[in-house]
Automatic annotation (TrEMBL):
It comes from the Bacteria. GO terms for molecular function: acyltransferase activity, transferring groups other than amino-acyl groups. SUPFAM superfamilies: Acyl-CoA N-acyltransferases (Nat). Residues 6-174 form the N-acetyltransferase domain. Pfam families: Acetyltransf_1. The lineage of its organism: Bacteria, Pseudomonadati, Bacteroidota, Flavobacteriia, Flavobacteriales. This is GNAT family N-acetyltransferase. InterPro entries: Acyl_CoA_acyltransferase, GNAT_dom, N-term/lysine_N-AcTrnsfr.
Amino acid sequence: MTTKNLSFPSCTLSDLDTLVQTSISTFVAAFEKDNNPKDFQDYIDNAFNKETLAAELANTDSLFHFAYDGDILVGYFKLNVGGAQTDVHDKNAMEIERIYVLGEHQGKQIGSQMLKQIISLAREHQKKYLWLGVWEHNPKAIRFYQRHGFQKFGEHPYLIGSDEQTDWLLRLEL
């Protein structure tokens, strides 16, 4: 089943509670089983608390968008440009820091539609390429990005609590 009529409104501070809840639930569903419980909880407590997400929403170099199927929230994504980028600091680039589909809505091509919207936003911002970090032990996500034309160009460390993991850096030329 494919969802065809998605909308991608920008998140604002008035959406903070929904953003916190969605961020935690999607991250937990994706990664909790593969991580040390204490490190994982430390990460969740720091990355997805109201203060952190409010500051990220206030940063004009970060863009949060929800994905809605009608009036049903099905996912969200976070993009970074300029100084908000976590690794590659290139004015010609846009980072996809987060792209998540709620579990019950996976398998409906929502991630592909979100990626099309992200490409459109990157072009509107006159970026030459997209890049992202994806955990080396997440083959499903790696395959998804490779199917959409992303290619590996490096690696960087990523901390979940005190656990240093490795993210592959992937890039898509626009």
